[in-house]
Predict the 3D structure of the following.
Amino acid sequence: MNTVVVYDIVCNRRRTRFQKFLKELGIRSQKSVFECRLDAREVREIRTYCRDHLDLNEDAVRIYRVCATCMDKAMIQGQGLVFSRLDWEVL
């Protein structure tokens, strides 16, 4: 399912490691936003990574599952990448 992962990680080192981790799962569309196509197992991997590697008293990660119809209705203003269905198929 289409998934948007948004994060605010205080420590540069933790943030860089998390970005490298997410880069294997999706496409970085903005500085703190990844758009991914994930199954339930991959979402669990992200949640486990957060629990094991982040300081959840300081850091925040939000995972939004988004249906295909909603992704098609997304409106983008200004900077940021625009993805087509073809981009999702590559993932």
Notes: The chain has a mean pLDDT of 88. The chain is about 40% helix and 25% strand. The chain has one domain: 2-70.
